[in-house]
Amino acid sequence: MAGSGAIVRNGKQLSATPAGLKAALRENAPDGFRRQHRDVARVRLDDGTGAVSAEINLAESPLGQLMRRKDKDGRPFLSRAEFEAGERLRSDYTRGQIMPRLGANWEASVSAGRRDGSGGMADLTDAALAARQRVDRALKAVGPELSGLLVDVCCFLKGLETVERERAWPARSAKMLLKTALGILARHYHPPREGAVRPSVLHWGAEDYRPELR
């Protein structure tokens, strides 16, 4: 074992090397080699019938990478609500079978008794149709200016630099626009409660008005 580079000897003490830790992870994890290259987190998503817990790989998601970034005050760049809103959109987008097919849909053409494999509305299950409707409502709530950005990053997992290059946007502009879009999306999924207390105007004053100090 020592000769394999998995452990090193320091006097009478043995310790695992980084390679040894990865080997142990491969050996003990249920999905083996893939597990060591994943950064797994659990999120709460709404599937239309209620909140469910889902396991996601932060390493494959641009939102997961942004979650690990800190702002100048040391706080996460994305709030938990913004992150989960993006993942919820991605979940519905996938469940609604909106992803474009890259080849012939042989299974659909056989099981549905049709040879065109068009994947039209008649082929959708109730769950997939409901997911499409949730996506449609969410993107309408965000608006046409930012909905395409959400689809590119959250659903197609495009990196921010790729989005900026494709859209000829200035560098680092997609990051702030994405946060704005996710904030709107989060409010769509969790609208403020009716009757919530809003700050009230204490006094309207003319231009030369000066408050009295008591």
Q: If you had to describe this structure to a student in words, what would you say it looks like?
A:
- With 214 residues, the protein is mainly α.
- The chain has a domain at 61-189.
- It has 8 helices and 4 strands; from the N terminus they run E-E-H-E-E-H-H-H-H-H-H-H.
- It has helices at residues 18-28, 62-67, 80-95, 106-111, 126-142, 144-155, 160-167, 173-189; strands at residues 7-10, 13-16, 40-46, 51-57.
- The strands form 2 sheets. The protein has a two-stranded antiparallel sheet.
- Helix 3 (80-95) packs across helix 6.
Strand ordering within the main sheet: 1-2
How would a crystallographer describe the biggest sheet?
2 strands, antiparallel
Q: What is Rg?
A: 25 Å
Task: Note the overall shape.
Answer: extended
Mean pLDDT reading: 74
Secondary-structure topology with pairs:
Layout: E1 7-10, E2 13-16, H1 18-28, E3 40-46, E4 51-57, H2 62-67, H3 80-95, H4 106-111, H5 126-142, H6 144-155, H7 160-167, H8 173-189
Antiparallel strand pairs: 1-2, 3-4
Short account of what is shown:
The protein has 214 residues and is mainly alpha-helical.
Keywords:
214 residues; mainly alpha; two-stranded antiparallel sheet; extended
